[in-house]
Every structure is written in C-alpha cells, then in structure tokens.
Design a protein that fits this description.
By secondary structure, the protein is mainly beta. It has one domain. 12% of the residues lie in helices and 41% in strands. It is built from one helix and five strands, in the order βαββββ. A hairpin with an 8-residue loop joins strand 2 and strand 3. It is flat and about 50 Å long.
Length: 121
C-alpha cells in the first residue's frame, strides 16, 4: 500500500494558500518534488498471526535540474515479540540521504560485471 501526499506545519490537508506557496517555491527553483509514504501493519512472523509489525517509510526526491536529483529516505519500524530479539519487542529505524547525477543521456546503464540468470529445477 502506498500513500502519496504532503504535510506542512502539522497540517494534514493543504489549502489553496499552501498549494500556491509550494508552486512559488518550485517555480523559483525550477525543480520538482516527489513525496512517497508507505505504511505496513500486520503479522509477519512465520506460523504466527498475532505478533504484529509496524513500518512507515518516507521517500522524498527533489529534482533540482534535468540531470541532478537529491533524495532522502527515512524508515521506522517496530515488531511485537520479535524472535530475533529473544522474544522481546523491537524497534529500528534508518535514514539515507543521497544525490543522483546523470552523466550521459542514457538512463539505466551501470558499470560492473555481466550477470547471467539460469533456471534452477
């Protein structure tokens, strides 16, 4: 499940004034902004339908120019009776900030060894 939206100064819903502010910022920077929120809740342990895991994932991207994009990703999760934590409740989080620059006009190319896939069985 994915939910896309935005939040400013603690408001859940944007009004027309907020939309105009964002439009002005984007026009000044000539960039685009994309925000993605993902949420998960429910049992994830094998053979167990009662210990729930909660996860929220936020991804933000700002395309500053045609070739330069800045991105950030924040995750927070918790799990009840985690078997990897001696049956105690667990929580974890992560943050990543990075930039992508397209050096050529081709998208999707990478360096490194060639990988072949084979069918097993």
């Amino acid at each position: 499940m994915s939910l896309q939206g935005g939040n400013q100064r603690g408001k859940i819903f944007w009004d027309e004034k907020d939309r105009q502010r964002l439009k002005t910022i984007l026009e000044r920077t000539k960039g685009t902004v994309q925000l993605t929120f993902n949420f998960m809740y429910g049992p994830e342990q094998p053979n167990n339908n009662s210990n729930n895991r909660f996860l929220i994932d936020w991804i933000g991207a700002f395309q500053a120019t045609k070739k330069l994009t800045f991105m950030a990703n924040v995750d927070y999760a918790q799990e009840e009776n985690d078997p990897l934590n001696s049956g105690r409740d667990s929580q974890w989080y992560g943050v990543a900030v990075y930039a992508k620059y397209e050096f050529t006009g081709f998208s999707g190319h990478r360096s490194g060894p060639s990988i072949s896939m084979i069918k097993m069985g």
